[in-house]
């Protein structure tokens, strides 16, 4: 296959954000500017590289629990369809493919999708990358992930309804997002962005969602939150799953 990052029968991706959809063009442009060094563990996405192992551990635990999987199985998603919404340059999409899933990954920034396709081709991974928002999903998907994305969309309710509409009846939706607390403002914006650990302008604290708000959005879309787990950060130990949801948290949901 000449292009390992897109199936030959896949439709051509949309040329860019579609007016009236869930994409915030300013957010797409901001993250698109980071595309060139997204895969550099010391670049602008360094914190995502540090976070990724924790993300993958959480996702693996949830899929094993939901589908009664074998924790020793190296391809627990074999035969299943997965979608990563807001995929950036593919930091999560590639591991999902290695876990066996048939992966569709979408992002609002064309620059990110170009970087994702190039990297996947270099790794010999077949991933269906598409430019656009939740509107371009073609479900049903057994697993949908959207990590650190909902706080960047133009319409959170429409976004969650779009995710729900693409989810298979026995599927799992996994989200993560910062909590709207004084701690998240301090660590992510005042210190993180202020000290250059996170690219300046990456977050708008007023758009952060509490766990209660996220669960309410899910319920309104016909989904039930079956797990809410916190994400903590320690300067010495880095990121870790936690009962404390004050900084950031994961939510796993299924159909009611």
Assess the beta-strand content as a share of residues: 15-25%
CATH topology: Rossmann fold
> What is the name of the CATH superfamily?
Vaccinia Virus protein VP39
Distance between the termini: 40 Å
What's the CATH class label? Alpha Beta
Number of strands: 8
The order of strands across the largest sheet is: 3-2-1-4-5-8-6-7
Oligomer: single chain
Q: Helix coverage percent of residues?
A: 25-40%
Helix/strand-derived category reads alpha/beta
- Secondary-structure element series: HHEHEHEEHEHHEEE
Total number of helical segments?
7
Whole-number tally of structural domains: 1
Radius of gyration, Cα only, in angstroms?
17 Å
Mean of all residue-level pLDDT scores: 88
CATH architecture: 3-Layer(aba) Sandwich
Shape type: globular
Indicate the low-confidence ranges by residue numbers: 1-20
Largest sheet: 8 strands, mixed
Model description:
This protein is of the alpha/beta class and 256 residues long. The protein has one domain: Vaccinia Virus protein VP39 (Rossmann fold, 3-Layer(aba) Sandwich). 32% of the residues lie in helices and 23% in strands. The chain contains seven helices and eight strands. Strands 3-2-1-4-5-8-6-7 form an eight-stranded mixed sheet. The N and C termini lie far apart (40 Å). The N terminus is likely disordered.
